Amino acid sequence: MNPLYRMPSVLPSLTLALSAALLLAGCDSPPAPPRTTEPVSNVYLEALQQAEAAKHDVEQRNLEQQRIDELLGRGQAQAPAR
Fold it and tell me: Residues 45, 36: contact at Cβ < 8 Å?
């Protein structure tokens, strides 16, 4: 028999070692740079805030109108009949 056939094969061990080295080398990649978070405008939130501000303005105007009506004596007037 040929002596080369009886020698333990080094090729599978070498292949396994190279595969492990390549796998570990791929895991050593540097982490991604941290993202800078820029303030993103939320259109819906801004619209809601504007609506709330408008509602407050209308309420203030109505209160002021009531106060003026009471000062002028219009507060006792009855609402027109339907």
Answer: no
Return all residues near 75 (Cβ < 8 A) that are at least 6 apart: 66, 69
Mean pLDDT of 28-36: 70
The CA distance from 4 to 53, in Å, is: 90
Mean pLDDT of the chain: 77
CA distances to 58, 59, 60, 70, 71 from 75, rounded to whole Å, are 19, 17, 17, 5, 8
Start-end of H helices in the chain: 3-6, 11-27, 43-72
pLDDT tier at 72, thresholds 50, 70, 90? very high
Query: How far apart are alpha carbons 4 and 56 in whole angstroms?
Result: 94
Distance of CA 61 to the CA centre of its chain: 37
Q: pTM here?
A: 0.41
